[in-house]
Specification:
The complex is a heterodimer of chains A (321) and B (191). By secondary structure, chain A is an alpha/beta fold. Chain A contains 13 helices and eight strands. Helix content of chain A is 44%, strand content 9%. Chain A has a four-stranded parallel beta sheet with strand order 2-1-3-4, sandwiched between helices. The two termini of chain B are 25 Å apart. Classes of the chains: A alpha/beta (321), B mainly alpha (191). The interface between A and B is large, with 69 and 64 residues.
Chain lengths: 321, 191
């Protein structure tokens, strides 16, 4: 299947391993990504905080280029912020006539045009979880990630705001859990899976940011995660590059690698770790990867709930009728 | 909280609704239930909780609202927005409050808007964001010690992993982007 692809600035450099691994798993999954030519920055969460119309115009140039260039109406963004910006712009342009008129004029000044609603904007997680699905993923698994305990981390901007329709639950998403399970990994309980990493807060108020990061790391560590799987460059950068700072600030000793879910997919598909961008993470993934075994772990014994014979007597319904 | 249209000049409350796309008029129906405040992960560091901000908007405390750090401490996680029983687009309203604070001349000398504006500068001139440039320019201005810490600690880490550019990259058609943004700015001025 053919998809328009909007990598976004992070995937050019800082999140290169996300880009590399996405390209690597595309082939076995039967996906063809066609990169939007000469795309520009989506504005992240900054541009919209300064000036509204230019912020929408900035995003709309990308929508216009994607619609003009690609034979596909699907536009995929692997970065959560890019995804939400593209999707929101498309949505608000369809809904708000005044905004649409202004953006039409702005695009016209650059010789472009865009008809809102003509693209189906997706996050990469949606493409893989919904369009491809777990069955097709399982069929490609050659080296299952047995015994690797993974905390599935969704962050904010993929599950929420959900006001434009959503493929997963806004507070208790499960699509990434299911993908990781089909890779053979052990998915741990991670109650904070959809909580915020702090976004740009590391730059605005480091103390606020570090505490938010600490909560996430603690929650993953308390549930014995070997690593956190992520789907957003901002979440990856914050949890990975600021883990040292969290440890220094709180006197903790977390060493939890933060790995893109596409890297784990590639690994399970039998692709070499080097071709998936492993080694670019600051907290090394190697100790966690060394835990992977060739044998399937025995399912954890679950205790039977209560003893029925000794249970308190409960009222029973008569059998009549 | 209901607002009737009168002949008075538009209050901040009205401006916020006009400035926000989506169902911002639902702000009229805020119940003051506090679900937003209780859901906010950076709430403890805010001058006023989102609920309090809405009460202050309703009370016409425009100055205090625009001076407050609340919108700048919003991390854009959208928890409040999915939980609000009245479906108020709270996160979008926080973005509107940031823009209005900049436009009305509040908060100009503070670091949070400066970070956003520095980011925009790079995007407007190159079409791409530039992490190192944004971080350095912003930190050097506001906390040089932080810039030093960043350059020697985390920056070096990222650099050694090949995860940071030393020079900004540029799109091919910067002139097209500039004409689009120039027009957009002209059109935005009236809003």
């Amino acid at each position: 299947m053919k998809y328009g692809y909007y990598p976004g600035c992070s995937l050019e450099k800082n999140a290169r391993s996300y880009h590399i691994s996405t390209m690597a798993i595309a082939k076995p999954l039967g996906i063809e990504f066609v990169e939007v030519e000469d795309w520009n920055c989506c504005g992240a969460t900054e541009y919209i905080a300064v000036d509204k119309i230019p912020a929408y115009a900035l995003v709309s140039r990308n929508l216009a280029l994607a619609a003009e260039q690609n034979g596909s109406s699907n536009l995929v963004a692997p970065c959560s912020a890019c995804y939400l910006n593209l999707k929101k712009a498309d949505h608000y342009l369809s809904e708000n006539e005044d905004l649409r008129k202004k953006i039409d004029l702005a695009l016209e000044a650059g010789g472009l045009s865009y008809q809102p609603g003509s693209l189906n904007v997706q996050h990469l997680l949606e493409t893989i979880a919904v369009d491809i699905g777990c069955e097709a993923i399982e069929a490609q698994v050659k080296k299952p990630l047995y015994n690797l305990k993974v905390a599935p981390y969704y962050g904010c901007l993929v599950p929420r705001p959900a006001t434009m329709g959503s493929f997963d639950d806004p507070e208790h998403p499960t699509s990434l859990d299911n993908i990781l399970k089909s890779l053979g990994a052990t998915v741990i309980d991670f109650p904070l899976k959809a909580q915020c990493c702090g976004g740009h807060m590391t730059q605005i108020s480091e103390e606020t940011a570090l505490d938010m990061l600490r909560r996430l790391l603690k929650n993953a560590a308390d549930n014995e995660a070997d690593m956190i799987a992520t789907l957003c460059p901002m979440c990856q950068l914050n949890l990975d590059a600021y883990q040292d700072a969290v440890n220094a600030h709180f006197g903790t000793d977390y060493k939890i690698p933060i790995i893109y879910f596409t890297q784990l997919m590639g690994l399970a598909f039998g692709l070499p770790a080097k071709e998936l961008g492993f080694g670019k993470e600051i907290v090394s993934a190697q100790p966690a990867l060394d835990k992977i075994t060739t044998e399937e772990p025995r399912p954890a014994r679950t205790r039977e709930r209560g003893n029925k014979s000794k249970a308190l007597p409960m009222p029973t319904r008569s059998e009549e009728g | 909280m209901t607002h009737t249209v009168t002949s008075r000049p538009p209050s901040l409350f009205d401006k916020v609704i006009a400035e926000t796309p989506g169902k911002a008029a639902n702000l009229n129906a805020c119940l003051q239930c506090g679900t937003c405040a209780g859901s906010c992960p950076s709430g403890p560091d805010m001058d006023h909780s989102p609920r309090a901000i809405f009460a202050m908007l309703d009370a016409g405390m425009d100055d205090q609202v625009l001076k407050s750090n609340t919108p700048w401490f919003c991390v854009s996680c959208y928890y409040c927005m999915v939980r609000c029983p009245q479906e108020i687009p709270i996160t979008d309203i926080m973005y509107s409050l940031k823009r209005l604070a900049i436009r009305e001349g509040y908060y100009q000398k503070d670091k949070a808007p400066e970070f956003s504006e520095t980011f925009c500068d790079f995007v407007e001139n190159n079409g791409r964001s530039f992490e190192l440039g944004v971080a350095m320019r912003y930190h050097l201005r506001y906390h040089p010690l932080g810039a030093f810490k960043m350059a020697t600690g985390m920056g070096l880490n990222l650099l050694s992993k090949g995860r940071m550019d030393l020079t900004p990259s540029r799109i091919k058609n910067v002139s097209q982007l500039k004409s689009i943004l120039k027009k957009a700015k002209e059109l935005g001025g009236a809003a």
